[in-house]
Amino acid sequence: MRYAHIVGWGSYLPEQVLTNHDLAQMVDTTDEWILSRTGIRERRLAGEKETVTTMAFNAAARALAVADMHPARLDMIIVATSTSEHAFPSTASLVQDALGATRAGAFDLSAACSGFVYALSLAANAIKSDAIDTAVVIGTETLSRVVDWQDRATCILFGDGAGALVLKGSDVPGGVLASTLRSDGSGGDLLSLHNTQISSVPFIGTSYVNGHGPYIHMNGRQVFRFATSVVADAIEEVIKKAGLQLKDISLIVPHQANVRIIDHVAKKLKLPPEKFYLNLERYGNTSAASIPIALCEAVQEGRLHPDDTLVFVGFGGGLTWGAVVVKWDVTPPDVSAVKQRLRQARYVAMRLRSRARRLLRRFMAWVGGSPTPKARLKDADRRLEEGGEKR
Ligand code: COA
């Protein structure tokens, strides 16, 4: 029997803070309204140079440092995100390159705010089936770039950030014990982000404002109703799958969407609110990144102890939801400062390696007579001028 253990964790949060008071200067809202309806006080916004890829890389590098694992030992990288910069290359492939994870397969996963739970479940099952031995799963989002900052019903909710976990196979029982993944696409229109370039016909009509967008579209009340109707059941279902009972669970780390949703779930399960770890007050809803970011803070605050049993539960667009039960049985190794510095130096070397490979590819193409990207553009412009042909 193989087991998938969590051996590393890391998060990255941009420095720029946007408070409810700042938002009250931008739209017709108040700190009191946002706090009482959502539990959020402030959120982080990615700076100009921060992207889903840079944030994911930083979170993964930190997680690998905790695990004391060389990136070249990684077999798989899964990135859960709804805000990937490209349809392809995947964010995961760019992170693989930046880490120098030269033996890893890499792909993105789209399950909105449930994405991290989906990614964790897939990676753990791949390890348990002995198909792979190590994986890093990442949730990363720049939601600030896809919200309509004039829509007070959505812009108050979301924030940016990334979180990552490293998984490793072992014969020792424990780690990820069970998972449950669900979807109900009939509710897809309740929470959506249209992809303009793929389809000119929006799924629903309201994600554009004055020709700008697409932006996140949400029916807040319906999403609230959906979340409060599925989350408690998902927790009970996954605990049962793991052969455990609610009383065996030490801490639940839910997707950080709204404190009222979590209060509702706690009441339904007859659990005290302290059983749920919440940090949405500081970061808002960071979608696929929220669970690993929360887990990292729970570790920092000393909320997790060896042999604790945890539940991660996610829910969101799709509609999707899912939960995972984990035995927390890790004692991170002590990694020397010198080793950490060497690790950083290796990432710089990996950046240079990547650049050198790109240059070499271009050079080989030039030697072989292929036109350069610049020459291709020039040629397209010439054809445009000559025949009105589209680039
Ligand atoms: N500030 C002040 N008033 C606001 C507001 C804001 N930021 N946003 C909406 N309102 C107003 C509405 O315009 C409405 O006014 P009206 O009664 O004059 O029409 C009133 O508040 C109530 O709106 P409603 O949408 O019914 O509020 P709500 O109590 O449902 O709270 C949400 C709105 C978004 C906070 C809540 O529905 C929610 O959290 N839903 C779940 C969203 C979520 O978690 N999404 C992600 C899931 S992964």
Could you please describe the fold and organization of this structure?
The chain has 11 helices and 13 strands. It is globular. The strands form 4 sheets. A 5-stranded mixed beta sheet has the order 1-7-6-4-5, sandwiched between helices. It starts with a strand and ends with a helix. A hairpin with a 3-residue loop joins strand 12 (308-316) and strand 13 (320-328). It has 2 domains: 3-328, Thiolase/Chalcone synthase (Peroxisomal Thiolase, Chain A, domain 1, 3-Layer(aba) Sandwich); 337-390. The protein is of the alpha/beta class. Bound molecules: coenzyme A. Coenzyme A binds next to helix 2 and helix 6.
Furnish the topology, listing elements before pairings.
Elements: E1 3-12, E2 16-19, H1 20-24, H2 31-38, E3 42-45, H3 52-67, E4 76-80, H4 91-99, E5 105-109, H5 115-128, E6 134-142, E7 160-170, E8 175-183, E9 191-192, E10 217-218, H6 220-241, E11 251-254, H7 259-268, H8 280-283, H9 290-300, E12 308-316, E13 320-328, H10 337-367, H11 373-387
Parallel strand pairs: 4-5, 4-6, 11-12
Antiparallel strand pairs: 1-7, 2-3, 6-7, 8-13, 9-10, 12-13
Bound molecules: coenzyme A.
Quick recap of the structure?
The chain is of the alpha/beta class and 391 residues long.
Attribute tags:
391 residues, alpha/beta, Peroxisomal Thiolase, Chain A, domain 1, 2 domains, five-stranded mixed beta sheet, four-stranded mixed beta sheet, 11 helices, 21% strand, binds coenzyme A
Q: What is the H/E string?
A: EEHHEHEHEHEEEEEHEHHHEEHH
The N- to C-terminal Cα distance equals 55 Å
Name of the level-1 CATH class of the largest domain = Alpha Beta
Number of helices: 11
Query: Into how many domains do the coordinates divide?
Result: 2
| CATH-defined fold name of the largest domain | Peroxisomal Thiolase, Chain A, domain 1
